[in-house]
């Protein structure tokens, strides 16, 4: 752990504080500029695609499946080829409070998972509020998952992933897929997921000073676009409080201790564990919301991504063994 690195990241994030009262178009423009300012991610190829009727980016390791697997993350069984010709796929959902963001803004994180696992990812451009409030994004998440199944990708060759609101969408997609009677994927990995639209977690108060990005007031302001007057106290808006996680596949929830959304992860993990779900709660000390985005700048980010990659490859290997 590097105290200096964590202090640098905290200072960088405080230079661009989030303002949930800004017009959506301004938030989108600012976030796009912030997240796409650096060089294109190395070690992957990126191709525009369509999934579930929505634009998407397909991100693949250079050299084909499994070529990008980092040392120490590969399982005994190759996740990309364990069932012959079936390609393993990470279905990725970007963050952005349901109002901003795109596959391009999440490209560095998506590529980080692809490089470490050797598994291709498809990152979906789901509809955003206020033009398309709840449940539009949820419908798109389920449609994207159905799209992979319709393409012939077995459920056991799919892992859902996402960050922030996209992490919440990954969890909600699992819930809606279960209710639709669809076979569930091998696992899900989520980074600082948004799982409580009521904003009622104690961390909203206890982490107020530590969080360099969000406040409850700013989140409440931006969430009004997604909610559009609907009650947030329902399973698909606040699964940390109201969803039944029973029957979900293995889950990995990663969060930083310096974020007001911390209790979204801790409370959902507790509900999932009580329901008999194989769930891992991975909290890193003194780092902020979606700290994994600081790959290469923060040792904790690289270590967390390595753990996430091992979880993905292990889950795919276990699913392959069951399929045999």
Strand order of the largest sheet: 1-2-4-3-5-6-7-8
Here the CATH topology equals Rossmann fold
Radius of gyration: 18 Å
Low-confidence spans: pLDDT under 50, at least 5 residues?
Answer: 67-85
Approximate strand percentage:
15-25%
Helix content: 25-40%
What does this protein look like?
The protein has 324 residues and is an alpha/beta fold. It has a single domain (3-323), classed as Alpha/Beta hydrolase fold, catalytic domain (Rossmann fold), CATH 3.40.50. The protein is 38% helix and 15% strand. It is built from 10 helices and 8 strands. It has an 8-stranded mixed β-sheet, with helices on both faces. A hairpin with a 2-residue loop joins strand 1 and strand 2 (54-61). Helix 3 (107-117) crosses helix 10 (299-323) and helix 4 crosses helix 5 (165-179). It is globular. The N and C termini lie far apart (41 Å). Mean pLDDT is 93; it is low at 67-85.
Task: Summarize it.
The chain is globular.
Topology of helices and strands:
Layout lengths: L2 H12 L9 H12 L8 E8 L2 E8 L27 E5 L13 H11 L2 E5 L11 H15 L7 E6 L1 H15 L7 E5 L11 H4 L9 H12 L11 H4 L8 E6 L5 H13 L4 E6 L14 H25 L1
Parallel strand pairs: 3-4, 3-5, 5-6, 6-7, 7-8
Antiparallel strand pairs: 1-2, 2-4
Helix pairs in contact: 3-10, 4-5
Q: Could you list some keywords that capture this structure?
A:
Rossmann fold, globular, 10 helices, alpha/beta, 324 residues
